[in-house]
Specification:
Blueprint: H1 14-17, E1 20-21, H2 24-38, H3 43-61, H4 77-87, H5 92-103, H6 118-137, H7 143-150, H8 166-177, H9 182-195, H10 201-206, E2 212-215, E3 220-225, E4 234-237, H11 240-253, E5 264-265, E6 269-270, H12 277-291, H13 298-325, E7 353-354, H14 359-362
Antiparallel strand pairs: 1-7, 2-3, 3-4, 5-6
Helix pairs in contact: 2-6, 3-6, 4-8, 6-7, 8-9, 8-12, 9-11, 9-13
Length: 365
């Protein structure tokens, strides 16, 4: 049984945002890795590891998968970092119990501590690390991905044009949410304006507080851009979750006129002046290292949603051509560009996918 989590923030297509493929062969690989690790343990140690895996499965799949039945080798450094950040949150045990009750009407709510203890968090971390190591040794996880899991803060430069997946984008937001300070609030808003607002770097740093337009009738905020010479003004609508980040930032920054986005000085002091492009690029690099993904530029983050859509269209065209050439191999597959190069599967099999993280969308305390 799984939860209906509805549309993802910003109206992004869920098929494009999928992080994990639940193809039967993929789940079997994950089972091999998990059971291979569990077989090295005995007694209480094995029970604790199994309990940790069940909790992690619940977090990663939001109830779609159970126990060890999950494609663990598809977990990347940013998934790992986001999951651990979510489990460290205040009220995480209660949220998981609420999710269990939503999935199973017969499950009785168990009162848990407000937070997981550091010992339990370490157990989650160690267990996941060992299963991913087993996945690498079985040949299911590449050397590069395993190296990033081991050292998530050692992100390297990409080899070509960088496309930031929606899963990576959500992990960036989780990383920002793990810290309660001015820099995190500002960076979260920057990522929304780039990824969902589609603002170019020059437009982003040029936005003033006066350029924000609050439409109380539609409950939306638009950002006026385009002050460059010979450039027409345009308005960029922001999704609801970006509005929350904007309100949090303005509450901290204050309504003083001037640039919307400002540098942060020592002691998390906001310097109400315009950010430089180098400051935005530094924020992108810092957060990329935090979640263990390849570095990306502000422009690459801005172009990523459109690039993912084009990849999905190309994958659909390739599948249609394959059906025409070999109709007996026709299949119903996900539009997820992450698996666009996968071989065409059996005609009766539907490729299920999971979007992560969906903590705030699917668990209602």
């Amino acid at each position: 049984m799984s939860l209906e989590i509805g549309e993802l923030p910003g109206g992004f297509n869920r098929s494009l945002a999928a992080d994990f493929s639940l193809d039967e062969a993929e789940v079997v690989k994950g089972q091999h890795a998990a059971t291979g690790y569990l077989e090295t343990l005995q007694g209480d140690e094995r029970n604790c590891a199994l309990e940790a895996l069940e909790t992690l499965t619940l977090v990663f799949s939001t109830g779609v998968c159970e126990g060890v039945d999950f494609p663990w080798h598809q977990v990347r450094a940013h998934h790992r970092q986001a999951a651990l950040s979510m489990l460290k949150e205040e009220g995480a045990p209660s949220k998981l119990e609420t999710l269990r009750c939503q999935l199973d009407p017969h499950h009785k709510f168990r009162q848990d501590p407000a937070k997981f203890t550091p010992k339990k968090i370490q157990r989650f971390k160690t267990t996941l690390q060992r299963v991913l190591k087993e996945s690498h040794e079985l040949g299911y996880l590449s050397r590069d991905e395993w190296d990033r899991v081991k050292s998530p803060n050692k992100a390297v430069a990409p080899s070509g044009d960088r496309i930031v997946s929606h899963g990576e984008f959500r992990a960036l937001l989780v990383a920002c949410g793990a810290e309660d300070n001015a820099e995190s609030l500002r960076d979260r808003l920057i990522f929304y304006l780039l990824y969902h607002g589609g603002l170019m770097l020059a437009e982003l740093i040029a936005v003033n507080v006066d350029d924000l337009h609050f439409d109380h009738k539609c409950q939306q905020v638009t950002v006026k851009t385009g002050k460059a010479k010979n450039q027409k003004s345009r308005r960029v609508a922001l999704p609801n979750e970006a509005l929350i980040s904007l309100e949090d930032w303005l509450e901290l920054r204050g309504n003083a006129p001037g640039s919307l986005l400002n540098p942060i000085k020592k002691g998390q002091r906001i310097d109400v002046k315009r950010m430089a492009g180098a400051d935005v690029r530094a924020a992108c690099e810092k957060r990329a290292k935090e979640i263990g993904v390849l570095n990306f530029s502000p422009d690459e983050l801005r172009k990523s949603p459109a690039a993912q859509i084009e990849m999905a269209k190309a994958a659909n065209r390739a599948r249609r051509r394959a059906r025409t050439v070999e109709p007996e191999l026709a299949t119903v597959e996900s539009d997820d560009p992450l698996y666009a190069d996968a071989a065409i599967a059996d005609s009766q099999r539907k490729l299920a996918t999971v979007c992560f993280p969906v903590w705030e969308l699917s668990i209602k305390s």
